[in-house]
Design brief:
Structural class: mainly alpha
Helix content: 55-70%
Distance between the termini: 30 Å
Number of domains: 2
Number of strands: 0
Number of helices: 6
Strand content: under 5%
């Protein structure tokens, strides 16, 4: 495997991700402007929304909403973990507000149940991103070695990790990888 090519591809991937982010931000800004002027979006009444629901959706809703309990517990534990451990390791903290964004409930054309669903999804999916970033920084600090088999959906830090079975200069590589997540790391 060509490490330089892999790093080059990872840099290109990051550039493309930044371009995508910029385009999405432009679209969001345009949407915000349009929303200020356009209240003609069709609102589905709560009664219409509930009566149009499939029975299976209604029956599974409690299962979906019960997941909020472990999510909140995970949120608390991961936030405390980061607050206690990251300063000790010299790892830059992850900003929770960069991941958990709850704003779709402000859309005037959503009914109360749709707004509740949007709050739930914004919180839960944001939390998963927040936890993933905290765990990826932890992994980069403690065990930045790739697996023998490529896991599906690896985080962006994984591409910089040490190749499985490559113990050459491991101490220096770990120092380099630790420095990438904070200039304070010695």
């Amino acid at each position: 495997m060509d490490k330089q090519r892999l790093r080059s591809l990872a840099e290109r991937l990051k550039e493309i991700e930044n371009e995508i982010d910029n385009e999405l931000k432009k679209g969001a800004d345009e949407t915000k402007k349009r929303l200020l002027c356009d209240f003609s979006a069709e609102k589905v009444s709560l009664i219409e929304y509930i009566s149009g629901a499939k029975p299976f959706h209604v029956l599974t809703a409690p299962v979906i909403y019960s997941m909020i309990i472990p999510a909140v517990i995970m949120d608390i534990f991961v936030t405390v973990y980061q607050a206690v451990c990251f300063p000790a390791y010299g790892i830059d903290r992850v900003k929770r507000d960069d991941y958990i964004i709850i704003d779709r409930h402000k859309l005037p054309y959503l009914n109360i149940l749709q707004k509740l669903n949007c709050i739930y999804c914004g919180y839960f999916n944001g939390l998963i991103g927040y936890v993933r970033e905290i765990s990826s920084r932890t992994e980069q600090y403690w065990c930045p070695i790739r697996h023998s088999k490529l896991p599906k959906g690896v985080h962006e830090r994984y591409l910089n990790f040490i190749e499985y079975g490559d113990g050459k200069d491991i101490k220096e590589e770990i120092k380099r990888l630790r420095k990438m997540i904070s200039d304070r790391v010695k």
